[in-house]
From TrEMBL:
Membrane-traversing stretches: none
Domain annotation C-type lectin: ranges: 69-188
Entries under SMART domains matching the protein: CLECT
CDD domains: CLECT
Pfam families associated with the record: Lectin_C
Coiled-coil zones: none
Family matches, as InterPro entries: C-type_lectin-like, C-type_lectin-like/link_sf, C-type_lectin/snaclec_domain, CTDL_fold
SUPFAM superfamilies reported for this sequence: C-type lectin-like
Organism whose genome encodes this protein: Strigamia maritima (European centipede)
Name listed for the protein in its UniProt record: C-type lectin domain-containing protein
Amino acid sequence: LIRTLPIDCICHLIILWKIEIKVANLLSNYYFLLELLSKIMRTILVLFIISCTHSFGLNAECPDKFIDLEGRCYYFSKDTANRIEASRNCTAMHSFLLSIQTEREGVIVFNQAVKENVKKEPFGYWTSGTRVTSKRGFEFVWSSTWEPLTYTAWCPSEPNNWMNDEYCIHLTNLQSHNTKACWNDRGCMESTTHSRHPMHYICETEAYMAPIECDE
């Protein structure tokens, strides 16, 4: 539990621990008071840890160039890349290619993608969705976690594995699909959409606590 606390909370725990030791030394000859002090300090520590646990993330920040969308951090690339390059680029930024877990996440990510699309043209963004073989023939998983898809938003008639070479999922707003946003399977080595527009990518990661130093 201690390892999951923000650094500043751990610093304050250390200070409380030092105070307890100093007071305990002063009361070393008074057994009753020492027992009472121990109970009081245990109560204070428990309440403090609970408070820190609930407040964890309130001061969290997203890495540079990442956008905070409802508590998670996303990076919308400006450069063009195939799926392999996209995954490597996310890793280089200590993040992972996008995996969409819920309809809500899909909506907020797409809305931000629309804002990023200053040219107002059809776009494609790589996700970590990947086709893999299974006992049922094949299925899609998020390669960033290797978990199966629990939510999908496929474009009409997709996935179709065109030319038997479409193993990766990208988010698209192609007008031909007659929908606001949907998923399409695409060849992993492609760096453009079917309409020859650039293929970008979305990385995601957790917000982090800015490091601070413990004061004595």
